[in-house]
């Protein structure tokens, strides 16, 4: 009887192990289909042109700039010692990060590297090359300084 229960336990364990990859894949698969709203279009990394990114930076609203500046600092594309005071002054001037619980979605999106371009779909700086990201961050910092 003991060997039968060990066999059953081992068989149950093997069944669970066999089903684990299926369950894991079901949970980690990205959502697809028409039901996915507000999803940034998947673009091949490094495929965004400098013109597209720089145009988006030039037309970005202050909240977007603040968020992107935060992204640039956190991603080490800008020196935090130099850029952080600019970000703090911009946030104070625009009140895009108020002390209460209400924030600004444009700032939050920008902090993840997303730039909204007019009414078009947002673009992600992650879809640009590292060189373009560095240049865009320098342009964001210069534009933020000019707003102060």
From TrEMBL:
This is Alcohol dehydrogenase 15 kDa subunit. It comes from Komagataeibacter saccharivorans. The gene is adhS. It comes from the Bacteria.
